[in-house]
């Protein structure tokens, strides 16, 4: 298995006693840039967590081509982090050095410099001492991207990175995603905006609990496939899919 | 009444007042920071539940030792508190019940069991002591016990500070870097139980959590960073102990409840006067 690749073999996941993901097979190639799209409740976030190894599979298997278990970078949905936690920007970013510092190690001068560089790359230089509670949603997302930059991960997974984020921040962060991709890292992002996917993401996995299509974005996001996703979502949930799925 | 007579004299005159004061300061230094972390984890109610869960263990210790013996009751309390903490964690992981619901069930059961066990052998006075504490009856052994728990708490917190804070702030991140979240969670619950047991003789099972949560709430209203929050919480807890003892001494009030009420008063005043409090909202400073 090549480094930076993730292969799913007939993956099914049960979450909260419900079948959240069913029968997904395929692979994220090393250095690929893939969007995961689908209606709300389609199991996209669940699939990401399973790839990270955070959820156990009810059947199937996931092969991860990583040198070490810690070569994953993960950006959770904004709602999963308490933005008013009493931490400074610098402390939050430096968590990205966990692979180096671990739970108990000190922060070297070199590491601190890398932290400042990462903050500069996301356009937040000079805000080190600010408390994260004082940042806007966009600025906070930049902080989390700076942390990801420091993590230096082979496989980077983003769960709705641009939801409720201002246009300027989205543009800057998309540029970082492309830089990661250009540096040969594997990037997987759960996204809702189909125009954005078509413009920036060469590969797409479209799913509604079951896979609908997985391949190049033009072949995956055809009107027929989108309609199928919508119908499947209605059948599965017994109600129409929520907002954010207007094809 | 002079300042000396009001504040210094009671502690010069009476050994039990001195011991009570030292116990309060030690409890504050341990419980304050623990309370801040509990609150940031949105586990305030869990702390409340665990303080009740300590009771049946302490009661069994009481039965075995044949009286109010702190080492026996403390050990029993630690064991019972840990069992309840781990069981309810297990239940919430394997059923659809949320963690606080399972904690509530466990603590109701253990409170009932504890009261039942004490009343099997003890008098109503014993029961009162178990429920509300006897801070003025703290002896040297109890003081060493409290001091040891506080020292252990502070040293442990200093060592595991980073993973504990991360586990609290962004548990998904800690798992994604294979930082081992569960072990720190269990260690933290262990510290909570230890500190509740330390407060147990001073304040009783019903109010032990007061010295943990009230100072933490005060600290959260005033401070923006975690280290300052912990310092404020420890300070408020210790000062509440001092003021509570002095007030209860002069007015002949029960010490434990007075200490908790002083902490509660600090909380109410903070609600009014803290930077985002009611007073500044109603009367914004004119420039």
Automatic annotation (TrEMBL), chain A:
<feature type="domain" description="ABC transporter">
    <location>
        <begin position="6"/>
        <end position="234"/>
    </location>
</feature>
<keyword id="KW-0813">Transport</keyword>
<dbReference type="InterPro" id="IPR017871">
    <property type="entry name" value="ABC_transporter-like_CS"/>
</dbReference>
<keyword id="KW-0864">Zinc transport</keyword>
<dbReference type="InterPro" id="IPR050153">
    <property type="entry name" value="Metal_Ion_Import_ABC"/>
</dbReference>
<protein>
    <submittedName>
        <fullName>Zinc/manganese transport system ATP-binding protein</fullName>
    </submittedName>
</protein>
<keyword id="KW-0862">Zinc</keyword>
<comment type="similarity">
    <text>Belongs to the ABC transporter superfamily.</text>
</comment>
<dbReference type="InterPro" id="IPR003439">
    <property type="entry name" value="ABC_transporter-like_ATP-bd"/>
</dbReference>
<keyword id="KW-0547">Nucleotide-binding</keyword>
<dbReference type="GO" id="GO:0005524">
    <property type="term" value="F:ATP binding"/>
</dbReference>
<keyword id="KW-0406">Ion transport</keyword>
<keyword id="KW-0067">ATP-binding</keyword>
<dbReference type="InterPro" id="IPR027417">
    <property type="entry name" value="P-loop_NTPase"/>
</dbReference>
<dbReference type="InterPro" id="IPR003593">
    <property type="entry name" value="AAA+_ATPase"/>
</dbReference>
<dbReference type="Pfam" id="PF00005">
    <property type="entry name" value="ABC_tran"/>
</dbReference>
Automatic annotation (TrEMBL), chain B:
<feature type="transmembrane region" description="Helical">
    <location>
        <begin position="258"/>
        <end position="279"/>
    </location>
</feature>
<feature type="transmembrane region" description="Helical">
    <location>
        <begin position="20"/>
        <end position="40"/>
    </location>
</feature>
<keyword id="KW-0472">Membrane</keyword>
<feature type="transmembrane region" description="Helical">
    <location>
        <begin position="142"/>
        <end position="161"/>
    </location>
</feature>
<keyword id="KW-0812">Transmembrane</keyword>
<feature type="transmembrane region" description="Helical">
    <location>
        <begin position="230"/>
        <end position="252"/>
    </location>
</feature>
<comment type="similarity">
    <text>Belongs to the ABC-3 integral membrane protein family.</text>
</comment>
<keyword id="KW-0813">Transport</keyword>
<dbReference type="InterPro" id="IPR001626">
    <property type="entry name" value="ABC_TroCD"/>
</dbReference>
<keyword id="KW-1133">Transmembrane helix</keyword>
<feature type="transmembrane region" description="Helical">
    <location>
        <begin position="74"/>
        <end position="91"/>
    </location>
</feature>
<feature type="transmembrane region" description="Helical">
    <location>
        <begin position="103"/>
        <end position="122"/>
    </location>
</feature>
<dbReference type="InterPro" id="IPR037294">
    <property type="entry name" value="ABC_BtuC-like"/>
</dbReference>
<dbReference type="Pfam" id="PF00950">
    <property type="entry name" value="ABC-3"/>
</dbReference>
<protein>
    <submittedName>
        <fullName>Zinc/manganese transport system permease protein</fullName>
    </submittedName>
</protein>
<feature type="transmembrane region" description="Helical">
    <location>
        <begin position="182"/>
        <end position="200"/>
    </location>
</feature>
